[in-house]
Design goal:
The structure holds 2 protein chains of 2 kinds. In chain A, helix 1 crosses helix 13, helix 2 crosses helix 13 and helix 2 runs antiparallel to helix 14. By secondary structure, chain A is α+β, with helices and mostly antiparallel strands. A 6-stranded mixed barrel of chain A has the order 2-3-8-5-7-6. A two-stranded antiparallel sheet of chain A has the order 11-12. By secondary structure, chain B is α/β, with parallel strands linked by helices. Helix content of chain B is 34%, strand content 26%. In chain B, the strands form 2 sheets. In chain B, strands 6-7-8-3-9-10 form a 6-stranded mixed β-sheet. In chain B, strand 7, helix 6 and strand 8 form a beta-alpha-beta unit. In chain B, helix 4 packs across helix 5 and helix 5 packs parallel to helix 6. The chains are: A alpha+beta, B alpha/beta. The interface between A and B is medium-sized, with 25 and 30 residues.
Chain lengths: 409, 253
């Protein structure tokens, strides 16, 4: 077996120029996959952490009722005893903090013009402790506790349409939990960009106390839980779920992945693109290799005839050709992995940025992650492709009529 | 004497222009030939007389259109392709006109190849390869690749490869055709020496007069049929003086 492997290995380097070209082709395919896959992974990882840090949190706690039906009146499916629930969660493993939230909507007016908004009421102290900081384009975040009760952040699009700026006043109008109309006056402390144009045109953020006063309720919509590390999400969820069972009202714990619809859509899209790229590389290597291997077989016709004449089993000839292809693929993959990592490192050091994609407003850093699974997967694709490409030449070689092969010039 | 090759009423026709049924060319016609163990037999004849076809059939790398061929007692005509492969592997050694060494293997590795495909242990292989290379006087060139060997050396490696697994029959197709006179003479001496010293049966095609002078039995083919089968009387056959160990002793010296 050792000699057979040696024969295959030496055959790989028999025609060095052609082998070099094949290695470059295979390696180029791997580099392409590593670069695109590494960049996609960076984007997906970035989007995941961005989604979590932007306010989604690692876990969210709702009443079971909230997930079963839509609210008839604001906060009628909210958490009534949320401080007790928050304290229970806070004692759990890996929990960094708990932030109560209220989702609501209504109208906002500057006296001359009104517009609808989608509001989020937060506890600024809890939010800041979890690192959920809004992306301000001007001004500052709403102040902690009492000082922030008359302040608001609004989206850049909403500020533009309402023609307001930091320091201006607005009246926020909403329907209370009793069904009455209520309003509070707020000062604009800052203008934010969410990263999404549609959201910026509707976004309003006020303090939890302001919202509870506006909505005439001491409930909250949900509790957002921040963990020490995203990787601990499953462990923390498993530990917290039983604790929530013992509470007065049935509660439900949701992981970030269950709530991050946009993240999942983007991830699926990138997975689809990467699969497509993988298929292109697979077929590119397959087609080019079939040609190369057939050429190699043709050149070695007499040698194959000699081996068959000496009594080499035909299966050995098939195995030899496939082994050579697998060795070529493995060496090409090695070249690709080394080249891909080198190129990736250079790209990362260069600090390149890409223009913002549709729907986003900030440029994306061009960074490539070095992912071992991607290296293994890309290598497998090219090795498998070459092995597949070798089947036809290998079988043709093994079926050569010996006398004809020996007479081949 | 034990019969090694028995060719019985063998014919071989080839379709002309890859046609399956029409325009058949008859390469061999109703041929009979028996070769006994230890013979040193030349098949001679002009180009196209059927020498290579006959060797291919005896070497079981081609199938006769009709007739039967037995090799070392095995009826090759009735064997499956797998058994024919095994028969070639175990009972026949081949020497080709163009040497046909595996270019990426060294001389020793080329000689080792027939043992490798027989599944012999590495220790046994080493011993056999050393013996075979010594018998052709190439011990010192064992680790050279074919492209670093002369034509004569390459053909001697091919002979070592053909005998290393101790076959019952060595087939050589025009073994001296690509060699100059000096190397051809050395090869002839070598083959005849191996034939006499080890009792190996050699069957080769040639129209090289130098080789024919050393050959006690010459079968002449013309147009696919045996024109003559001349056995030199053992008593009267006086081959030119040959050294049964020409190269090994030279090397030792």
């Amino acid at each position: 077996m050792g000699k057979f492997l040696l024969l295959a290995f030496r055959n790989v380097f028999r025609n060095r120029r052609r082998t070099l070209m094949t290695l470059l082709m295979v390696g180029g395919g791997v580099v392409g996959l590593l670069m695109s896959g590494g960049f996609f992974a960076f984007m997906i990882d970035g989007l995941r952490e961005h989604t979590i840090r932007e306010g989604l949190g690692h876990l969210q706690v709702f009443t079971a009722e909230h997930l079963k039906r839509d609210e008839v009146r604001v906060l009628d499916t909210g958490i009534p005893n949320w401080r007790q629930v928050a304290a229970t969660i806070q004692a759990g493993p890996h929990v960094r903090g708990v932030a109560p939230r209220i989702d609501f909507y209504g109208m906002v007016s500057n006296g001359a013009k009104s517009s609808v908004f989608m509001g989020s009421a937060v506890d600024p102290v809890a939010e800041n402790s979890l690192g959920f900081t809004p992306r301000l384009t001007s001004g500052r975040d709403i102040g902690p506790k009492a000082s922030g009760e008359t302040e608001a952040l609004i989206g850049a699009g909403l500020a533009r349409s309402m023609n307001v700026k930091v320091g201006d006043g607005l009246t926020v109008l909403a329907v209370t939990s009793d069904g009455a109309l209520n309003g509070v006056d707020v000062d604009i402390a800052g203008i934010v960009k969410t990263g999404y144009d549609e959201m910026d045109a509707r976004y309003l953020r006020i303090s939890l106390a302001s919202a509870q006063r506006l909505l005439q309720s001491d409930r909250v919509t949900n509790l957002v839980v921040g963990l020490d590390d995203t990787a601990n999400t499953d462990v923390a969820a498993a530990a917290l779920a039983p604790k929530l069972q013992g509470l007065q009202q049935p509660m439900v714990l949701k992981k970030w992945i269950d709530l991050a619809t946009y993240y999942l859509q983007v991830r699926n899209m990138f997975s689809g693109i990467f699969l497509f790229l993988g298929l292109i590389v697979f077929f590119m290597v397959l087609m080019a290799s079939v040609n190369t291997l057939l050429m190699a077989m043709f050149e070695r016709t007499r040698e194959i005839g000699t081996m068959l004449a000496m009594g080499t089993p035909r299966a050995w000839i098939v195995a030899l050709f496939m082994l050579e292809a697998i060795l070529t693929g493995s060496l090409g993959a090695l070249v690709g992995v080394l080249g891909g990592n080198l190129l990736g490192t250079l790209v990362n050091l260069s600090g390149l940025h890409m223009p913002p994609p549709p729907g986003l407003t900030v440029p994306i850093s061009f960074h490539v992650l070095h992912i071992p699974a991607l290296m293994v997967g890309s290598s497998f694709i090219v090795v498998f492709s070459l092995a597949l490409a070798s089947i036809v030449p290998a079988i043709r070689a093994s079926r050569l009529p010996i006398a004809e092969a020996l007479a081949h010039v | 004497m034990k019969q090694i090759v028995n060719v019985q009423d063998v014919s071989r026709s080839y379709p002309l222009n890859h046609s399956r049924t029409r325009n058949l060319v008859c390469a061999l016609s109703h041929l009979y030939l028996q070769v006994e163990a230890g013979e040193f037999l030349a098949i001679s004849g002009p180009s196209g007389s059927g020498k290579t076809t006959l060797l291919n059939l005896i070497g079981c790398i081609d199938q006769p259109t009709s007739g039967r061929i037995s090799i070392g007692g095995d009826d090759a005509s009735s064997l499956s392709p797998g058994h024919l492969t095994a028969l070639r592997r175990e009972k026949i050694g081949f020497v080709f006109q163009t040497f046909n060494l595996i270019p990426v293997f060294t001389a020793a590795e080329n000689v080792e190849y027939p043992l490798l495909i027989q599944g012999m242990s590495s220790q046994e292989r080493r011993i056999r390869v050393a013996e075979a290379l010594e018998s052709v006087g190439l011990t010192a060139r064992a680790h050279h690749r074919p492209d670093l060997l002369s034509g004569g050396e390459r053909q001697r490696v091919a002979v070592a490869r053909a005998i290393v697994h101790r076959p019952v029959l060595v087939l050589a197709d025009e073994p001296t055709a690509n060699l100059d006179t000096h190397n051809a003479t050395q090869l002839i001496d070598l083959m005849r020496g191996l034939n006499q010293r080890l009792g190996l049966t050699f069957l080769f095609s040639t129209h090289d007069q130098r080789l024919l002078e050393h050959t006690p039995r010459i079968v002449r083919l013309t147009d696919g049929a045996i024109e003559s089968d001349s056995h030199a009387d053992a008593a009267s056959f006086q081959p030119p003086a040959i050294d049964p160990f020409p190269l090994a002793q030279n090397q030792m010296a």
